[in-house]
Structure formats: structure tokens, C-alpha cells
Write a structure and sequence with these properties.
CATH superfamily: Rhodanese-like domain
Number of domains: 1
CATH architecture: 3-Layer(aba) Sandwich
Radius of gyration: 18 Å
CATH topology: Oxidized Rhodanese, domain 1
Oligomer: single chain
Shape: globular
Structural class: alpha/beta
Length: about 140
């Protein structure tokens, strides 16, 4: 098989890369936003929703929270979510985006919240730092 010249590979990667980096169609059209069908969000996707009607739930420890958090986020440590989420977020109609440092704790709380009637999606493959790096304001 003949190898393609390097410059053709570079041109192809430049042409094809923007399409692969585009936001999912539902993020471009808030009226089609249905987080109930999503298993997770990347930090870029979660940051793109910052002006939508969503709640950001920080499930990191109190010490991590005090070190900085997403502006407007609500704090509830992951080990308290199952028992306290109903009193912290009584309105189950607003979608919730959970985040932590890496995505592990954010994903951990999803099942308990869904069982209580919340539409909740964790930020995976990054967390707080990646949200800030993608345009979320720090508080």
C-alpha cells in the first residue's frame, strides 16, 4: 500500500478536525436540549450550557469547594447526595449537571438522583478545572 505524503495528511486533519470538535446539535439549539438522554457530558459541553436553565451541582468535599467552585453552583458532598438532595434541590424539573475533580464522584451520585426523579448528567473526563478552562466563571 502506498503511503500518503505527510502534507496531505496534515491538510486532511485540518479539514476534518473542526467537524469532529463541533458541539452536539442539541447544544446549539436549547429548545432541543434533552439531558435525560445523555449518559455524560464533557467539560466543554457542560460549559456550553452555562446560560441555559440548568443547575451545576458540585459534589466535591467542603475543603475542595472552599478552594474555588463554578459560579452559581450548589455544593453537596457526594456522600450526602442520596440523603440530602431532596431538601437542597426540591425542584426536580430543572436538569442538574454534577461535577467533581475527575468525574468519578459526579458519576457516582447519578443513580441515586435519577431514582429520586432528577434529570442529572455528570461531567466526565475532567471536572472543575476543565470547566473553568472552558469558560465557566470561578467563585
Amino acid at each position: 500500500m502506498k503511503k500518503l505524503p505527510r502534507y496531505i495528511l496534515i491538510i486532511l486533519s485540518l479539514v476534518l478536525a473542526p467537524a469532529s470538535l463541533a458541539e452536539p446539535p442539541e447544544l446549539n439549539n436549547p429548545e432541543k436540549l434533552d439531558l435525560s438522554q445523555r449518559q455524560s457530558l464533557s467539560p466543554q459541553e457542560a460549559a456550553a450550557l452555562r446560560n441555559e436553565n440548568v443547575i451545576y451541582l458540585d459534589v466535591r468535599s467542603t475543603l475542595e469547594w472552599l478552594g474555588g467552585h463554578v459560579e452559581g453552583a450548589i455544593h453537596l458532598p457526594y456522600d450526602k447526595v442520596a440523603q440530602d438532595i431532596g431538601s437542597v434541590l426540591p425542584d426536580r424539573s430543572v436538569p442538574v449537571i454534577t461535577y467533581c475533580v475527575s468525574g468519578a464522584r459526579a458519576a457516582f451520585v447519578v443513580d441515586a438522583m435519577r431514582k429520586q426523579g432528577y434529570t442529572v448528567v455528570p461531567v466526565t473526563n475532567g471536572g472543575y478545572r476543565e470547566l473553568i478552562a472552558n469558560g465557566m466563571k470561578k467563585d
